[in-house]
Amino acid sequence: MNVEQIYYAQWLLSLYELSNKAIRIIQEKVPDPNELFRLPKEQLEMFLPPQYAQVLWKKCQEGLRSHGSGQEHVKCLFEALERRGMHFVAMGQPEYPARLTKIPDPPLGLYYSGKLPSDKSLSVAIIGSRECSEYGRHVAETLGRFLGERGAPVISGMARGVDGISQQAALLAGGESYGVLGCGVDVCYPKSNQKLYQTLTQHGGILSEYPPGTPPLAANFPVRNRIVSGLANAVVVVEAALKSGTSITVSLALDQGRDVYVVPGRVTDRLSDGCNQLIKQGAAVYTDPESFLEEIQQTFFLQSMGPKASVRPISGTAPALSSHSKDSDEGALGPTHDAKDDAKPSEPYGLPERLKIIWRVLDHTPKSVEEIQKDLSETISVQECTIRLMELVLTGKAKQVTTGQFVRQ
Residue 328's closest CA among 234, 239, 407, 257? Predict the structure, then answer.
């Protein structure tokens, strides 16, 4: 990938109205920005849906008015980004995290401040409730500090509660941490984590697939979770309710083949209901940082030896819940995708009517949240539509195939 292609990729990704699928099509059909900026809207509509063609044509006209040529326009925008202390890496560049290239729907590019995580380091994603208990706080802090002292980067979403606590502990111990945001890298969210945000740019990094200036929209956070788990070798769930954003991350981690470890909680504690449910499904029980790190180091080492390597669970511990785990393909998180299921047209049995309404609109052509909302038989907000879609994903009745695009499962 040459410099001009990187400029071009950054500009396309900055057009948040376009889906990843649309961007891939544009790059394939028109690899030269100068050619793209000269195309009439009618020609764009030959390979793009009308709404995308309209947006793209308008942006091209704005660029021509600003800089005279497509190539100069995309170059100037990239240079402006760098002057603001932010960076961009496109898929295909050597610096792009190799782990993300192996997940479903990898981001086409990443904006970042600070640096990118190294694929040579064993990384751990620590996730959990924003309203964590003192018990959850203690576990997150202890594990984050332990990993930080041993040079294992902590990946999380910089949210309140478990995320921020574990990341702060890793940094205070002299380690690295990386925050994946559901907004632009120039937007600190939540604002209460401003100090953590600044420290991450110095001793790790802030990453996002969303262009600078993107506000923290609710629909962005479930999507960004695939990057949190995708950058890690293993995921540790500290505290989670039954239906939460943490459960979405776990589902994505399983699709990516990541091992999931869970901190058990009291059966009377609602913040541990999600964790205890995952343990019933076969997730490994996290008991202490020493044995946890020992086990994932074995897995990390054997993975580096090649695809034929395998690891036996340490005596006395359950195998980590993974995409190959016997119990991971059924249960609360729903069945894993099987191509044979595509032929089943009947409505899912036992699905609540409010979710069936969404399911009926879906088919095997990817649709955005806005397109789904428009086709519904009832009027609901985009936020409510997104929440219902995530529930369908968790039950295995829908699948997110690219950023903001869903199909029937």
Answer: 257
